[in-house]
Structure formats: structure tokens, C-alpha cells
Design a protein that fits this description.
With about 80 residues, the protein is mostly helical. The protein contains two helices and no strands. The N and C termini lie far apart (about 65 Å). Keywords: Signal.
């Protein structure tokens, strides 16, 4: 019985998420434009991740083994 109640409560809470567009709080404004920018970014632009923040994954599979190249910086300690 308790798992069923917990499930109902969890399902009820999933509908509590905000479905409205994000806006600054009343009386507040968006952050100032970054240095060198010509305009203040919109909320959508601020929430969009750049490729540097979310790099693409490389799924290239190795089809045959390959020798590693030498590492010039793998030096013994002094």
C-alpha cells in the first residue's frame, strides 16, 4: 500500500514543473552584455549550450590495434 501512495505522490509532483517561459524576477533585469558584445543576450541565448560546453562524443571504433605513438613528455622524475 505504501509504495502505491509513494507512486501517486511522485506522479502528482511531476506535474508541478513550470511550463511558462523563463523571465527575470519582477524588478530585476537580465545580466549586462558581456565585454565586446553588441547586445544583451536573450534568455534563450543564455540557456543554449555552446559546443565548448557540450562537446560531441567520438564513437569511432577501433577496427584494428595500433601502436601508441611515443610520448616526448613521459620523462622520469629528477
Amino acid at each position: 500500500m505504501k509504495p502505491a501512495i509513494a507512486l501517486l505522490v511522485a506522479l502528482g509532483l511531476t506535474g508541478c514543473g513550470a511550463a511558462n517561459r523563463l523571465q527575470p524576477a519582477k524588478g530585476e533585469s537580465l545580466p549586462v552584455a558581456p565585454r565586446g558584445a553588441t547586445a544583451t543576450p536573450t534568455p534563450k541565448q543564455l540557456l543554449t549550450a555552446t559546443p565548448q560546453q557540450r562537446p560531441q562524443r567520438s564513437d569511432e571504433l577501433m577496427t584494428q590495434s595500433q601502436d601508441r605513438r611515443s610520448d616526448e613528455f613521459d620523462l622520469p622524475p629528477r
